[in-house]
Amino acid sequence: MMVPDLVLFVLLSFVYYNYLKRKWTTEMIEGELERRKEATLNTVEPENINPVKANVYCHFHTVNDKNIHLIQPLAHTIWNECYKDLLSEDQINYMIEMMYSNEKINEGIANGDVWEILKVDNIPAGYLHYKLEEDNTVFLSKIYLKEDTQFKGIGQLMLNRVVDYAIDKNAKAVHLTVNKNNAKAIRFYEKNGFKNIESKTFDIGNGYIMDDFIFQKNI
Predict the structure, then answer these.
(1) Disulfide engineering: 215 pairs with which of 128, 150, 194, 206, CB 3.0-4.6 Å?
(2) Which residues of the chain, if any, have pLDDT below 70?
(3) Percent of the chain that is helix, strand, coil (3-state, to 5)
């Protein structure tokens, strides 16, 4: 082999060696970064990861004069599903008439409350009522969904919407009331990072009371 050829061979070998070295180093670094990424994801609290896997079309409609008539029928259906073992039929009817009249809803909207109807595959299935309060917290007054749509991730979708609203408004927390015996709802809120901060009883008239926990999620 001629000397120039030998020199060229040595130079090419050196270049190829450095190329392989850089490639192996890069692969090792990328592998380590991937392992660290997986380790980090595994340490995230499960309650903060709430994916929605709804296989239906969902759309929120702001309550107005054209759809306000849908609220009371929805409330009657859902409350009789949700509270049949917790409240008497008379109390359910009394509370719906008290809280869901058109006048009461329109009064809230005029004062800045958000009322929304959720349609699932274009069929009314639930509703939300929430508002930003003077103390810079969002009060989630009502989050209700028909029983036959509760296992499709839609309840999560509704709650996420309110939390996103609070974040958008730079609110410091979201809070709500829940019946002390409503174990299913309590589990749902706790899974989403809400904490029980107070026990409170409300006199709602006609001899009825609401015996509730107050749950709050800091933003």
Answers:
(1) 194
(2) 1-54
(3) 50, 25, 25
